[in-house]
Write a structure and sequence with these properties.
Order of helices and strands: HHHHHHHHHHHHHHH
Radius of gyration: 17 Å
Largest sheet: none
Strand content: under 5%
Shape: globular
Number of strands: 0
């Protein structure tokens, strides 16, 4: 664990997430088989979205929108407005334009644009459980971290529901943020995962999460996850699969670089898996562990660092 000041942790989390995202952008939608033949080992340029090296996507953009809302006097409505402005006004884009967005997120932001009074615009059906809330939720690890569980979960649920209104997305975000909370406290990944697992059954019971929903998280909560074969890890866009993939990579590797490269080389939704994994890995290993040649090409690095400082000071 590196520098544990809130600002250093916030910087490392945002930079770690953005770097993981940027590593995945050039190979998004390519298969795991393609990655086995040609594994990502460094920052690449162009590829899937024809972007220069170091370009992050919607994952980091919407994470930065949440961080900016924290810096500017947080409300859920302000967060929703910044998310809308990203899509319609290019707020927090790496090079001034949006080039990647998930279907569920786009539909929600279209609803926000059409109705200025709407905040919780996310779909609530079971098929609205893509990873678009999980990918941007990490800054909440720094906001009201000591608040009672029910208050924290209500906040998580509302921030998730800006784009993803189903309870499963909110639970996935909660478990992810619980791991982040334990990493912030200095626990190594295995201990952070164990602490989350120990506490989660009672937490989910207290929050009245239905059993048929908690059952979806059985592989994570049973402790079996780190031991499953890579062939059993799915790296598509479903929120549960992204959470499993991120935790699996974090628990099986011992440096920032190994962890995020493992995530990207799972294939398919490479930018989001890289971002969700990279946020936790950055938080634990620290900014100094991120390869300097990756940070050197990262789009808007100075802006990200300034955002982290402002957000950390505000929370």
């Amino acid at each position: 664990m590196s520098d544990s000041s809130p600002e250093a942790q916030f910087r490392a989390a945002l930079l770690g997430l953005a770097v993981g995202d940027a590593l995945g952008v050039p190979v998004e939608f390519q298969s795991r088989a393609a990655r086995r033949l040609d594994p990502v080992a460094a920052m690449r340029a162009y590829g899937t979205h024809n972007q220069p090296a170091g370009t992050w996507s919607d994952d980091a953009s919407l994470t930065f929108c949440l961080a900016q809302a924290l810096a500017d006097g947080f409300t859920v409505g302000l967060t929703a407005e910044y998310c809308r402005r990203w899509y319609y006004e290019n707020l927090w884009t790496p090079h001034g334009s949006v080039f990647d967005i998930g279907i569920t997120t786009r539909e929600a932001l279209n609803r926000l644009q059409a109705d200025p009074d709407l905040i919780l615009a996310g779909g609530t059906d079971e098929y609205s459980n893509g990873n678009g809330a999980l990918m941007r939720i990490l800054p909440l690890a720094f906001y009201q971290a000591e608040a009672p569980l029910a208050e924290r979960f209500q906040l998580i649920r509302e921030v998730s529901a800006i784009t993803h209104g189903h309870i499963r997305s909110a639970v996935a975000c909660l478990l992810y943020l619980e791991v982040a909370r334990h990493l912030r406290a200095g626990r190594p990944p295995a201990a952070a995962y164990a602490a989350m697992r120990e506490q989660a059954p009672a937490q989910l019971h207290k929050l009245k999460i239905p059993t048929h929903e908690t059952d979806h998280f059985e592989r994570i909560l049973s402790g079996r996850l780190p031991d499953v074969a890579v062939t059993a890890i799915d790296s598509g866009g479903y929120v549960l699969h992204t959470l499993e993939a991120a935790l699996w990579c974090l628990l099986r590797h011992e440096t920032y670089a190994e962890t995020v490269l493992a995530a990207v080389n799972l294939g398919d939704d490479t930018d989001t898996t890289g971002a969700v994994t990279g946020g936790l890995a950055g938080l634990y290993y620290g900014e100094a562990a991120i390869p300097p040649e990756w940070l050197a090409v990262l789009a808007r690095r100075a802006d990200i660092e300034e955002l982290a400082a402002r957000a950390a000071a505000a929370v």
